[in-house]
Design brief:
The chain has 584 residues and is α+β, with helices and mostly antiparallel strands. 41% of the residues lie in helices and 11% in strands. The protein contains 19 helices and eight strands. The protein has helices spanning 4-16, 45-62, 131-141, 163-166, 183-195, 251-255, 258-271, 287-309, 325-328, 337-352, 377-395, 401-404, 430-457, 465-468, 483-493, 508-514, 521-537, 549-554, 558-579, and strands at 97-105, 123-128, 147-152, 200-212, 219-236, 242-247, 496-497, 503-504.
């Protein structure tokens, strides 16, 4: 039998022996204390660094992708549960679905993700403590970027598990037990919601930055909600939930490409010399196929614009606290009552700031410097339609049209069923105009609300700079319209916006004016229809009726969301008008 020290040395040799940069004939360090318990006073910095490096290497082996080679021939590759179903974590032009996508729900108790649906356009810093969550995100991050996962809000979520990840590291004691997340309830509720005819929607997230904390196993993530998705199937329950999802562009965005999708269908069928029927009975000319093509074009345009619409955020550490602050805040017998109260207040404030990373503004900003490098929309959508029809023709079988879009159990299929409410006819030319008109009236109502709030509170009400960047440039604003002046001032200042993570202010219409072929005003209105609800959430105390974020996420058109936001603001305005004292 070998001693524990020999076993440690053997494991160290096995892990690091195959590293190309390791010098040969150099024995691993043996000046460590084998009897030192982890994190104890006997464990030196050298001991801990060596142990943590071994842990990281073991994690790399465990989460290694199935097709990658082992780092050392002497190390047995562990068969991880995550390797049974590879994640479909990439989107490319012509594709609209993601298979076996890791999914978190409101039952998981992740901070900012447990109380309401999350709309596209928002960003957060998450502290992940729960072992199941850490396992899931380690699995996601073991693959190449982009790192995608889904979030689904389920009604009546339980609050008993919300301590799993919302507690900061400083607040976790050795006696605290992090509860396990039971996927059974979420799985059953997901299946129940999927059986309902109205459909189940969620949000596609991406991870833009991450930090692994060796001391407590915590993972800190910078995440962004980038798109709306429709959940079609729960593909896996263990070790964590995975779903098959389809990106869900709004009706207006799909209508933009319906004619092009229809023409591409006829062009593709005419180019095929296979003898297949080109008429109405051909599945490739069915309404579902054409609707899927319009979706593929709209998704491709969204992917094209993502580098401009979604400026990545990165984790930035806070300045370290002074070493003597705890001693200075310690209560003394000579302290007066006033001094003790001040110290208690400062101590509480320091505890609230205990997280090591700076928070970020909830609204995503545009990337000003990427606009010029955006690809041409016409060429991208044309390429995506060609890919879509080729894949669809390759997947075609002697079965009927319904089989083409209904094989949701086949994880290799590129297609998911098209909704019965999918676009099936060419829209009138007024659809975009209707969105622009509703957008105009929404901004007018918002300007009125801000002036009323100023009158009621006798203070200036701030507006998020990211929201101001979405204000259209028009010549027909009302004479007393104040927001245009504020947006122009931000635009002319040329300064940066944000709290800890600074970025240039972007007036979207200014970018469109420089090259209107790269970005559409409809996408600007689409962004506004989601992010406006951040401002309205804080006005719930006024008593005005407002749809929940789940209801907002279920709306399938830009016009419907803008109209709902305007009705909410108008309700707030009616209440504020009654609060203003009438002049005698």
């Amino acid at each position: 039998h070998r001693s524990s020290s020999e076993l440690h040395d053997s494991l160290f040799d096995d892990i690091f022996e195959g590293e190309p940069n390791r010098k040969e004939n150099v024995a691993p360090p043996n000046n460590y204390n084998e009897d030192a318990a982890p994190f104890s006073e006997l464990e030196s910095d050298h001991d801990r660094a060596r142990r943590m490096e071994m842990v990281r290497e073991l994690q790399k082996v465990y989460y290694k992708e199935p097709n990658s080679s082992a780092s050392s021939s002497s190390v047995a590759v562990v068969s991880s549960p995550v390797q049974s179903k590879p994640h479909a974590t990439t989107l490319s032009y012509g594709h609209t679905s993601l298979r076996n996508l890791p999914t978190v729900t409101s039952y998981d108790g992740i901070q900012t993700a447990d109380s309401a649906a999350i709309l596209p356009g928002y960003q957060f810093v998450w502290n992940i403590h729960n072992p199941q969550h850490c396992h899931m995100f380690h699995s996601i991050l073991s693959g190449p970027a982009p790192w995608y996962f889904a979030h689904v809000f389920l009604p009546d979520s339980l609050s008993s598990t919300t301590t799993a990840t919302t507690t900061s590291t400083s607040e976790l004691s050795a006696q605290d037990e992090i509860p396990n997340i039971d996927n059974t309830e979420a799985y059953n509720d997901l299946q129940y919601e999927l059986k309902r005819a109205r459909g189940l929607y969620g949000t596609l997230f991406r991870i833009t930055d991450r930090r692994f904390h060796d001391e407590d196993g915590r993972i800190v993530l910078a995440v962004q909600a980038i798109d709306k998705i429709r959940i079609h199937n729960v593909s896996s329950k263990h070790p964590y939930l995975c779903t098959d999802v389809q990106l869900a562009p709004d009706d207006e965005l799909m209508r933009m490409y319906f004619d092009k999708a229809l023409m591409s269908s006829a062009s593709f069928l005419s180019s095929q010399n296979t003898g297949n029927n080109v008429g109405e009975n051909n599945p490739l000319s069915s309404p579902s196929a054409v609707s899927g093509a319009a979706r593929a074009a709209a998704v491709a345009d969204s992917l094209r614009c993502r580098q401009f619409e979604c400026l990545p955020i990165f984790l930035e550490e806070k300045p370290k606290r002074p070493n003597n602050i705890d001693g200075a805040l310690k209560a003394r017998s000579t302290d007066s009552n006033a001094t003790r109260k001040v110290k208690d207040a400062i101590r509480k404030q320091e505890q609230e700031k205990a997280d090591a990373y700076m928070s970020v503004v909830q609204l995503m900003n545009y990337d000003k410097f990427s606009y010029g490098s955006l690809e041409d929309a016409e060429s991208i959508t044309t390429r995506s339609l060609e890919t879509y029809w080729k894949n669809l023709a390759r997947a075609q079988t002697p079965s009927d049209e319904e089989d083409l879009f209904s094989k949701i159990d086949d994880s290799s299929s590129l297609f998911l069923p098209e909704s019965s409410a999918s676009i099936s006819s060419t829209p009138s030319s007024t659809s975009v105009e209707a969105v622009q008109m509703m957008e105009y009236h929404l901004w007018c109502s918002l300007d009125t609300m801000l002036r009323l709030l100023t009158m009621v509170s006798s203070a200036t009400v701030p507006m998020p700079s990211q929201l101001m960047g979405l204000l259209p440039k028009r010549d027909d604003w009302p004479k007393d319209f104040l927001l245009e002046g504020a947006a122009t001032s931000l635009e002319n200042s040329g300064g940066n916006i944000g709290t800890s993570f600074k970025s240039p202010f972007v007036r979207v219409d200014q970018m469109i004016a420089s090259n209107s072929s790269k970005y559409s005003t409809l996408r600007r209105a689409h962004r506004l229809s989601y992010v406006i609800w951040m401002l309205l959430d804080g006005l719930s105390l006024t008593g005005a009726e407002s749809p929940s974020r789940s209801d907002v996420l279920k709306m399938t058109s830009v016009l419907a969301r803008l109209q709902a936001a305007k009705l909410t603001i108008d309700g707030v305005n009616d209440i504020l008008k009654r609060l203003i004292p009438k002049k005698d």
